[in-house]
Design goal:
Layout: E1 9-13, H1 18-29, E2 33-36, H2 43-53, E3 57-60, H3 63-71, E4 81-84, H4 90-98, E5 102-105, H5 119-137, H6 146-157, E6 165-168, H7 175-185, E7 188-195, E8 199-203, E9 216-217, E10 222-226, E11 239-245, H8 257-263, E12 270-278, E13 284-289, H9 304-313, H10 324-341
Parallel strand pairs: 1-2, 1-3, 3-4, 4-5, 6-7
Antiparallel strand pairs: 7-8, 8-9, 10-11, 11-12, 12-13
Helix pairs in contact: 5-6, 5-7
EC number: 6.2.1.3
Keywords: Fatty acid metabolism, Ligase, Lipid metabolism
Protein name: long-chain-fatty-acid--CoA ligase
């Protein structure tokens, strides 16, 4: 595709998936720069990033996105190749070629779970997880049980069968995800907390199977909590926005001095946007998010976790974002209406 190692930037605009992971790690393998843009970002934001980084290769996950980028080709002169995860038609390929874009279909890599194909398999799997959880609560990590031999072995083989140690990075992982990996793979899984702006901040300790938080600070890393009065978090209560300083923190956003000034404070302290607290054991714990952000000037901020949960529920097809004080009134009115109509579910 004509990419230059160490210089070329590949933009990835896909939902979290196997194809996303393959694209992301392949760029590193070939010494290319990966520029992932969350799939939750609106197209205006995505186009903005594509213009800023001047990427000639874009990986996306839908034909609709291909059509949108094709329509914006006039403002994307650097874009030469689009790799699409979806199956693409000859007509679309021809339309892209006429615009000077090569459309490349992503080789389908489908991994289907066999667990949910029968009620018996599901019941056995759930029983196996229950038994491994009991061992996990006792601090036992093993792959020698009967459940490992007949249930979890096939899952381990999907990753080569030699998975011995793992770590999660960036935002805190959900407890059930960590538990699943520890039960299935019978190995230690360390949680490393950090972000693009501040790099690594803290890590749980080995065999901290029920740790409360994201562990202790890395050597050379300083962290403090700063007041967030609009959310009623104050440092005097050991709660506030996590602010980090270390040799690994970034200097600012690319071609965006305005946002850089809002994030990088005097003295080299960098605001993370995460709300944290100190536990009784001295560990750092992330308890909230000040700004589920997609940081771009003149582009709407995205509150990703709330939006993802609403869309995944199937109860709504579109979402909007409200200020906190407005949201309280909206939700209060909505719940009152549900009570009146007798439609409030126990969940």
């Amino acid at each position: 595709m004509g990419q230059v190692p160490g210089k070329s930037i590949v933009m990835i605009n896909c939902k979290t998936s196997l194809e996303y992971a393959i694209s992301h790690y392949c760029t590193s393998h070939y010494s290319l720069v990966s520029c992932p843009v969350t799939a939750n970002a609106d197209m205006e934001a995505t186009i903005f990033v594509l213009q800023q980084v001047e990427s000639s290769v874009l990986v996306c996950d839908s034909v609709d996105k291909v059509n949108h980028f094709l329509g914006k080709k006039d403002v994307l002169p650097a874009l030469k190749t689009i790799v699409c995860v979806d199956e693409v038609s000859r007509e679309l390929t021809s339309a892209c070629r006429n615009k000077g874009i090569e459309l490349v279909p992503f080789e389908e890599c489908l991994v289907h779970s066999e667990i949910h194909k029968s009620a018996i398999k599901t019941a056995i799997f759930n029983l196996a997880m229950k038994q491994k959880r009991k061992l996990l609560k006792k601090g036992i990590l093993t792959t020698d049980t009967i459940w490992d031999k007949f249930v979890f072995k096939k899952i381990r083989e999907e990753l080569g069968g030699n998975f011995r140690y793992g770590l999660t990075t960036s935002a805190p992982a959900k407890a059930e995800v960590l538990e699943f990996f520890r039960c299935v793979f019978g190995c230690n899984l360390v949680e490393v907390y950090g972000s693009t702006e501040v790099s690594v901040v803290s890590s749980t300790l080995p065999f901290d199977l029920e740790g409360d938080g994201v562990g202790c600070l890395f050597p050379g890393v300083e962290a403090k909590l700063v007041d967030v009065p609009e959310m009623n978090y104050f440092a005097k209560d050991d709660r506030g926005e996590i602010c980090v300083r270390s040799p690994l923190t970034f200097q600012g956003y690319y071609k965006n001095p305005e946002e850089s000034a809002k994030t990088v404070l005097e003295g080299g302290w960098v605001l993370t946007g995460d709300i944290g607290m100190w536990t009784k054991g001295g560990a750092l714990k992330v308890i909230d998010r000040k700004k589920d952000i997609f940081k771009l000037s003149q582009v709407h901020n995205l509150h990703l976790h709330m939006e993802n949960d609403l869309l995944a529920s199937g109860l709504v097809t579109n979402t909007l974002k409200l200020k906190r004080n407005v949201a309280r009134q909206v939700f209060a009115d909505a719940i009152a209406n549900l009570y009146e109509e007798g439609r409030l579910l126990s969940t």
